[in-house]
Amino acid sequence: MFAKLPIVFFTALLLFTACGSDPKDNGGVPDPDQPGTVASDVDLFITTANGSRKFFHDSIAFNSKPNMSPYTITLNPAESYQVMEGFGAAITGSTCYNLLKMSAGDRARLLKETFDPVSGMGYSYIRISMGCSDFSLSEYTHCDTKGIENFALHTEDKTYVIPVLKEILAIRPDIRIMASPWTCPKWMKVNNLTEKKPFDSWTSGQLNPAYYQEYATYFVKYIEAMKSEGINITSVTIQNEPLNRYNSASLYMTWQEQRDFIKTALGPAFRSAGIQSKIIVYDHNYNYDADRAENKDQIDYPLHIYSDPEAAQYIDGAAYHAYGGDKSELADVHARNTSKNLYFTEISIGSWGYSFADDLMWNMNEVCLGTINNWAKAVIVWNFMLDANHGPNRPGGCTTCYGAIDIQSDYKTMTRNSHYYTIGHLAKVVAPGAKRIATTGYKATGLYYAAFVNPDASYAAVMQNDTDKPLNITLADGSHTFTFEVSAKSVVSVKWK
Q1: Residues with Cβ < 8 Å from 380, sequence gap 6 or more?
Q2: Given CA atoms 41, 45, 50, 51 in this order, what sign does their dihedral have?
Q3: Beta-carbon neighbour count of residue 127 at 10 Å?
Q4: pTM (2 decimals)?
Q5: What is the C-alpha to C-alpha distance for residues 50 and 330, in angstroms, rounded to an integer?
Q6: For the chain, which residues score pLDDT lower than 50?
Q7: CA 40 to CA 308: how far, in whole Å?
Q8: Which of 429, 454, 479 is the last residue of a domain?
Q9: Total number of domains constituting the chain
Q10: Which of 491, 449, 490, 475 is nearest to 42 (CA)?
Q11: 46 lies in which domain range?
Q12: Residues of the chain with pLDDT > 90: what percent?
């Protein structure tokens, strides 16, 4: 199948070869009927909404003649914005279970294809649950017997999550890892903060303030236990979806509670133990779930916490999901407190109307480029891999979600969905530590893009054409220009020195 391709591509193509892919999904393998040019000045990666190209690699030369194109976008590295931290997906318990059902060889090829920064897509930031999530094999925390002295990493993490994380780290040792709890141990819960009656349920309840210190110790012990396994936790969020009582495992936590927990317990505990993991608040929807009456006073959740200097001193920033509200909330929060960072940490696809074409366009505009152009430092989507039955999943959680990759019951045949590619388009060309930079010049309705300068001084841009016509775009960096086509309904990532 490689006979028509130049030899210089052969090694690169092997990396993107799908292990057991759906015949209709080329899984990032360049189409042999659409060969790229010989390696040159600029690398391009192309995905079209119609699926004719999926992470197709091409390369072009700089323009040799003076640029006169009216469709020129000029990069301005002198004006920079946020420093990027990475892009990836959630490595849930269900993801790990599915990955470990694959053959070792198939799994190794897929993980290399996904995480290798040189020969793969270079995913660089992942999210895991601290204890169970709605995509685990059971409900659990790491201290289900009362008393913090009973803390121990749970069997499910030891059996599924940690082995997969170690395989990822072997490919990408600098991977950033965010950990988020779906619930505290049940013995720490009360029904509400007025009655404070014990609440023996995985779903809902609130953290008993009497256990703030123990719960802070729980975070410290978790980070230290993972470190003893060779896994460094880059950041933690305090609670996944704190304003959602209704997930299979959940804990209701207002901004007032997060403020008090951080300033009286978690922040001091991290400082005392020398924990460097970043503390990130909120981790929920743009609209603060204000359509529920109990959340009416939760609008601007992180900003309320930042206004308390005792709490704010420990906090790196806030995380957001896209299941309600609009991405413009990120820009508003940034404008009102520029000292804190912003992260995008969850969006899923599922059987509620998904198509590769529609979500490739929506996700790139609303989640990937959309959050980055509104100050997000990282973009992480939900499950990396689910099975043909949308799981394993927990009753009360999402039972209709798709993964970035869906795997069939043979644990070999895979479909790479839109999320897999949108994240890949960012991770491949934008390295951790890159700065988003300003641009001037050509703009058009339906054309979206962001530009970056990487730590190695290379430039990168990610572009989306959401129109029905191809666009010939010229990029200029002050020293070079180059021109390329952005096909109708497509995403193109470019990188050059």
Answers
A1: 87, 88, 89, 90, 125, 126, 127, 178, 343, 344, 345, 346
A2: positive
A3: 28
A4: 0.93
A5: 31
A6: 1-38
A7: 53
A8: 429
A9: 2
A10: 475
A11: 7-58+67-81+436-496
A12: 92
